[in-house]
Amino acid sequence: MIEWIRDKAHHDRIRREHEDFFILMFWGDFSESAQRALREMKALSEDYEKVAIYALDVKKVEGVHKDYGVSSVPTVVAVKNGDVVRRIEGVESARFYATRLLGAAPAHVAVPKKKKAPKVTVYTSPGCPACGRLKDYLRKKGVSFRSVDISKDEKAAKEIARRSGQRAVPQTDINGQLIVGFDQQKIDMLL
To answer: DSSP characters for 124-164?
Structure first.
């Protein structure tokens, strides 16, 4: 869970309480990137429940950004023993934030919550370049999936056409949600 910093005194108390390690996100409602980054940080906080993660609205809690050398939102910093040890400017995925920021965290804190692997089925057909790229992408991400060739499985072809309204491939079913085409952003979000 992300806790919002209310004022400078609250921030100072957090720095003392979490001297060993915490993550702080500088946020502003005026920034679309900050909105996306907040969603990714929420996902990170759900996966790593022991990590202290805070967000600070730069319009409401003024001046703190200067202490960290922050000049844009979103900016996320990892603070260890009172010093900024990692900094990410701009929006990234929850996985990227975890990899980059939690490398500095104490081992007992950076423990991910056990998650069930997503159920992924990729519907393809021969001679489909996007299908091959999609499957390569999933393999590189370490995602297990079942591949169904709709040219050989008429029942599957009818089912995805009924569900999506399209016969186009690739189509990817991730935990029951269907994505038509190779939409990397949607795939990452559902994974």
So the answer is: E-TT-HHHHHHHHHHHHTT---EEEETTT-HHHHHHHHHHH
